TrEMBL record:
This is Transmembrane protein. It comes from the Bacteria. The chain crosses the membrane at residues 39-60. Keywords: Membrane, Transmembrane, Transmembrane helix.
Length: 65
């Protein structure tokens, strides 16, 4: 039962990441204002990418127990 739930969470994470990296969402962030010294689009891409890696690692570690 636990492995199925982890698989479902990974699929949901993938779909959420695919949604966040899709054009309509990224076009909302395409502004010239700097965010931590970088264009807002690039900063948000790196933040979302790091968050997805952290969520997948959390799911994988939790499912291993």
């Amino acid at each position: 039962m636990r492995r199925g739930l982890a698989g479902q969470r990974l699929v949901a994470t993938f779909l959420g990441g695919a949604l966040l990296f899709n054009y309509p969402v990224l076009s909302l962030l395409d502004r010239s204002e700097p965010f931590f010294g970088m264009p807002m689009l690039w900063a948000c891409l790196f933040i979302v990418w790091a968050a997805l890696i952290a969520v997948v690692a959390w799911i994988a570690e939790r499912g291993a127990r």
